[in-house]
Amino acid sequence: MKLELRGVTKRFGTLVANDHIDLMVDAGEIHCLLGENGAGKSTLMNVLYGLLQADEGEVLIDGVVQNYTGPGDAIRAGIGMVHQHFMLIPVFTVAENLMLGNEPTTFGGRLNLPAARAKVREIAARFGFDIDPDALIEDLPVGVQQRVEIIKALSRDATILVFDEPTAVLTPQETDELMAIMRQLKAAGTAIVFITHKLREVREVADRITVVRLGKVVGEVAPTASNVEMASMMVGHAVQLTVSKEPASPGATSLVVNDLTVVDARGQTVVDHVSFEVRAGEILAIAGVQGNGQTELTEALFGLQRSVTGTITLNGKNLHGMSVRAVLNSGAGFIPEDRQEDGLVSEFTIAENLILDRFYQRPFARRGSLQLTTLRDFARKKMTEFDVRAPDVTTPVGRLSGGNQQKVVLARELSRELSLFVAAQPTRGLDVGSIEFIHERVVATRDTGIPVIVVSTELDEVVALADRIAVMYRGVIVGIVASDTSRETLGLMMAGEMPAGVDSLS
What we know:
One of its GO terms (molecular function) is ATP binding. Keywords: ATP-binding, Cell membrane, Membrane, Nucleotide-binding, Repeat, Sugar transport, Translocase, Transport. One of its GO terms (cellular component) is plasma membrane. Pfam families: ABC_tran (PF00005). By secondary structure, the protein is α/β, with parallel strands linked by helices. The chain has three domains: 3-235, 3-Layer(aba) Sandwich (Rossmann fold); 244-331 and 418-506, P-loop containing nucleotide triphosphate hydrolases (Rossmann fold, 3-Layer(aba) Sandwich); 341-416, no CATH class. The protein contains 17 helices and 22 strands. It has helices at 41-48, 71-76, 94-99, 113-127, 142-154, 172-187, 199-205, 227-235, 294-301, 324-329, 339-343, 350-353, 372-385, 402-414, 432-447, 459-465, 487-494; strands spanning 3-12, 15-25, 30-34, 56-61, 64-66, 79-82, 160-164, 191-196, 208-213, 216-221, 253-263, 269-279, 283-287, 307-314, 317-318, 332-335, 365-366, 369-370, 420-424, 452-455, 468-473, 476-482. The strands form five sheets. Strands 6-7-8-3-9-10 form a six-stranded mixed β-sheet, with helices on both faces. It has a six-stranded mixed β-sheet with strand order 16-19-20-13-21-22, sandwiched between helices. Strands 2-1-4-5 form a four-stranded antiparallel β-sheet, with helices on one face. Strand 17 (365-366) and strand 18 form a beta hairpin. The longest helix has 16 residues, at 172-187. The protein is globular. The chain starts with a strand and ends in a 12-residue tail after the last helix.
C-alpha cells in the first residue's frame, strides 16, 4: 500500500505542532522522519494512527482519502504502530496481548486462545522470531517485547507500519536486530515510517529521509547525506557533532561508593551491592538500558531513596543518611533525569528556579527577606552565561523549550562551589544545538578538577563524554571499562554479560 499525507495540520491552542505537512511512503520503502524531540513527528503519526484528529489536511491510502475517527479505523485500513513505550499488558501472555481489541471467539462465544497462539507462531516463524505464545510479557527481555508489538501489528494485516523512536530502550545488539527485521518487512512489501532523532540509525536503514523542524517539513535528504548536513537541517544552524575534550588528568579519589543497596517500595532490590569510585577531574559515565537501577542509584547518592544500605563518601565525608539539603550543601550538584518533574517548578520564574536550593542563603536572602534586586541581577547574568533564551528572568520556566529548561537546571547546579557533579540523562529530549552546549559544560566542569558522573541511556553520549564507563544491568555494575571500549562489547555488558578478555577498571 502507498501512504500519503497532504497538508496535515494539528494545533494545540496557539501551538502549531504540525504545519501543513506533506509526506509520501511507497510500499516496500523505509521512509525516515527525522527531527528532534518536539519537532512534531509523534504528533503527525498519532494523527495517522487515529489517536488525534487533524485540524486540516488529509490521509490517503492507495489514493483513497481516509476518514477514520479512531485507531480502530486506522488498524482496519492497514496501519500498525510500534510505540516507543510498549502498549502491552505485563501480566498477560504474548497470545493474550495479541487478542486485545481483536478477540477471536469460538462458535459458543468463548475466547479462542488457541487461534491466537497459532497466529503468534505463524508470524514468528515467518520472521525467525523465537517467541513462546504462553510467555508472560513481564518475563521477556525488552527486545523480545518489541517483537511482540510487531507481531501484534502484523496479526491485524498491517501493510503500513510506524516505528516511533523504537530503539530508545534497546541495547546496540537489539537495535541491530530491529534493523534487520525492518529490512525483512520492507522486502515483504511493507511501507515503513521510521521516526527517530539518531543519525546513525537513519543512515543504516532509510531509503528516504524527511526532516521536520518546529512542526514543518524543512527538506528531504538521501541517506548518503552527511551527519553534519542532517543535523544542521534538524536545528537550523551548523552544529558540532563530536565532543571536543582533552584526555582527563584525574586527581585523588573523591567519591567512594561501597556496597550500596537500594530496596524500592515494593521490596525489590533495584541497586544490588554496587561499589565504585570517581576521581577528581574525571567523568565516570554509567551506561545501561533504562530501568536497570540507574535512577535509584543517583537518587540514593542525594538522599532521595529511603531504603538504602552501604556507604557513600565524598572527600572523606559520609553522605549516607543525610537529608537532600545537607547533601547539596556538601557541594554536590545534580541534574535529575526528569527536569520537569524533579528539576524545576514550572510555575516559578527563571530567576526563582535558579535559587531553588539556596533561596534562604546570602546573598539572596537577608533577615528572612528575598533580595529581589540581587536575584534579578544574578539571573540575568546566568541567562547570558548559559545562553537561556527567554524574554526576561521573570518568564515562567514552564514556557521555555526543553533545551532552555535544561540550561536553567544546569546554570543553577553549576553556579555554586561543587565537590561533585551528577548529570542524569542530561540531554534527553534536546536538540543537537542544546546537546552541544551541555556537553561542553560537562567537560568544562571536569576540567576544573570536579568529579563528574554522567548517567545516560544514549550510548553515543556515554562514549563521547566518558573517561571510564560503568555498565549497569538489573541493579548490578557488570564492569567498569575504558572509554574506547567497542559498542559491541558495551552492548553485551548492557545485556548482563562481561565478555571474556575484557579488563574491568573497577
